[in-house]
Amino acid sequence: MTHALARLLLALLASAALMALGWAVAGKIGLLAATPVVAVLVTLPIQQVLGQAALHTQRLATEHALRGTRRYRDRVIGVIEDQDDHWWLRVDDLRRVLDGLPDTPRLLAATRGRSTPDTWRLDAHVRADALLELLDAAHARPTRQFTQWLRQEMAAEARRRERHR
Questions:
Q1: What average pLDDT is seen over the chain?
Q2: In angstroms, rounded to a whole number, what is the distance separating the alpha carbons of residues 59 and 45?
Q3: CA 129 to CA 124: how far, in whole Å?
Q4: Do residues 43 and 68 lie in contact, with contact meaning Cβ atoms separated by under 8 Å?
Q5: What angle do CA 106, 111, 115 make, to 5 degrees?
Q6: How far apart are CA 71 and CA 59, in angstroms?
Q7: DSSP character for 1?
Q8: What is the chain's alpha carbon radius of gyration, rounded to the nearest angstrom?
Q9: Helices marked H in 27-90
Q10: What is the pLDDT of residues 44-101, one digit of tens each?
Q11: How far apart are the C-alpha atoms of 59 and 81, rounded to whole Å?
């Protein structure tokens, strides 16, 4: 990134020198003639900086998403924690763990306002408290074990957060 910024600075200095030379040699016409060259000199490093910034942002977002996982019985469950400390669980991962989970449209309808559908940026997620409310009525032992595990994980995370504040 610093290499690209250095190239941008060099391009800006060269552009300023070229514009000054054009003005000194031919006045307004020289300034006008130097403009397309300056545009190319400056545009390419800017594109490079923006491209690297986009890749860096994507890498950071991916790292953040990968950090937000929990393991339940050797299965990974994607977790996003929002600013209000709510957990959002990835529906596809939940489906691998819970057999009786309703299909995605019904799950999203049952947890309306506390779930997000699939988009091009993010898979479907459901808020943990909404999922717990939905699953509390379940009588299947694996489902009860999962809800107990989820409550324990959320409580442990809350205790960790309190210790670090």
A1: 83
A2: 21
A3: 16
A4: no
A5: 100
A6: 22
A7: -
A8: 27
A9: 28-67
A10: 888 888 888 777 777 666 555 545 788 898 899 988 887 778 888 989 999 999 888 8
A11: 18
